[in-house]
Amino acid sequence: MAISRRNFLGKIGAAAVAGAAMNPLISSAQAGQLVSMSPSPTKDLILLNRNENPYGPSERVLLAIQRSLASANRFPDLACDALISQISALHKVKRDQVILGCGSTEILRSAANAFLGPGKSLILSSPTFDAIGTYAAATGAAVVTVPLNRFFANDLDGILSRIDASTELIYICTPNNPTAILNPRSDLEDFIGKLPGNTRVIIDEAYHHYAGNSSSYASFIDRPVDSDRVIVVRTFSKIHGLAGLRVGYGIAASKTARQIASFSVNNNVSVVAAEAAAAALEDTHNVEMNIKRNSDGRQEFFNQAYARMMRPVDSHGNFVFFKTTHPTEYLIEHFKAHNILIGPPYPSLENYIRVSIGLPEEMTELWRVWNLMPFVNQMAM
Fold first, then answer.
1. For strand 248-251 and strand 319-323, is the pairing parallel, antiparallel, or unpaired?
2. Which of 58, 111, 175, 335 could form a disulfide with 340 if both were Cys (CB 3.0 to 4.6 A apart)?
3. Can you list the positions of beta strands (E) in 136-254?
4. pLDDT tens-digit profile of 90-99?
């Protein structure tokens, strides 16, 4: 039987009430409050700031989550082992090449701990998803940033020019966050071929599914290169709608994967997250549906932006990046005052903002609030 999110939350609420009723220290009135309380502190906000999937997990995944709750008393070893086997079979790699993480960010942190430290350096673009820069700095490593090129993509030649004997790790997010621009696969292969033997590159494919319709894009997991210097990370936070459960994975050469995994926290992926991720991988129909939803929503965003004389940067993600004539801080506060959260400011790209693609009704509200700004017609790239 299909289960809706409302029914799912209702079952959780009913279980809470039943548990409370058996507790003599909790009154029936207090038990009722467990259901009446808001299930989310963000329920009145429109969240267009974190590149999340606004549609959430599929019904198949919600059922898996519901079933997994019965195993909440068990450590997640078996569920994680099963997920690793599933990922290795999906990508035709050995099990010991798969690294599970509490989100892909844990894998980035573990890689920084494995390969960086005092006297070593990380190179990454600016702006990009810079969590690994924070992790690298915490190890005592130097963090070298390279501005994006004029197309808002990673400047591969610029990165190569900054490599020296201390460069142990390079981070490439493609499509890049926040610009949603990808680096052509052929350029990345040429780039990897020029790396020194001691330098590894992390390719972050968080937005892989949204970039698949580009002829210049190909995943380094689905079409690997013959190099043990490449580490690829994926997340279940985007197309699969599991950002709140925190689960991701990486694929690397066996030795490299073991080095990274040695810095992971034990039992870092919960049984609920592991079983939800397994169900999400199987639900290919939902993936295709979310790709279509995002494509339609992204095109409508462009239509609305063009109607307002703006030209967003081309997007291969589930978000759009564009320039306005108003300060970023003003826009952020304007939308926040109307219960809409958008992306953060980017000091290296003044007056650019990033907006995630939300539900159709959320995007309608975004543009309604946009039109409330004074001098709105003067905003143009």
1. unpaired
2. 335
3. 142-147, 167-173, 200-204, 230-235, 248-251
4. 999 999 999 9
pLDDT for 374 equals 81
Cis preceding-peptide flag for 327 (omega within 30 of 0) = no
Structure tokens belonging to residue 290? 């979310």
Do the Cβ atoms of 340 and 365 come closer than 8 Å? yes
By C-alpha distance, which of 182, 125, 128 is closest to 151?
182
CA 301 to chain CA centroid, Å, is 20
Q: Which letter does DSSP use for residue 337 in this model?
A: H
- Report the predicted TM-score, pTM, of the whole model to 2 decimal places: 0.88
CA separation for the pair 153, 179 (Å, rounded): 7
Report pLDDT digits (tens) over 252-283: 999 999 999 999 999 999 999 999 999 999 99
Model confidence pLDDT, tens digit, residues 125-175: 999 999 999 999 999 999 999 999 999 999 999 999 999 999 999 999 999
Give backbone dihedrals phi and psi of 344, rounded to 5 degrees, phi first.
Answer: -80, 170
pLDDT at 136: 98
3-state secondary structure of 17: helix
CA-CA distance, 156 to 159, in Å (whole number)? Answer: 5
| CB 179 within 8 Å of CB 147 | no
Give the separation between CA 76 and CA 245, rounded to whole angstroms: 14
pLDDT (tens digit, 9 = 90+) per residue, 209-218? 999 778 899 9
291 contact partners, CB below 8 Å, separation of at least 6: 209, 210, 212, 239
Please state the length of the chain: 381
Q: What per-residue confidence (pLDDT) applies to 325?
A: 82
The rounded distance, in Å, linking the Cα atoms of 271 and 69 is 8
Q: What angle do CA 217, 102, 253 make, to 5 degrees?
A: 55
Average pLDDT over residues 61-68: 98
Angstrom distance (rounded) from CA 259 to CA 220:
20
Q: Give me the residues paired with residue 99 across strands.
A: 250
Element (H, E) at 322: strand 319-323
Backbone angles phi, psi at 349, to 5 degrees: -130, 85
Tokens of 318: 């589930």
Extended beta strands in 127-235, E state: 142-147, 167-173, 200-204, 230-235
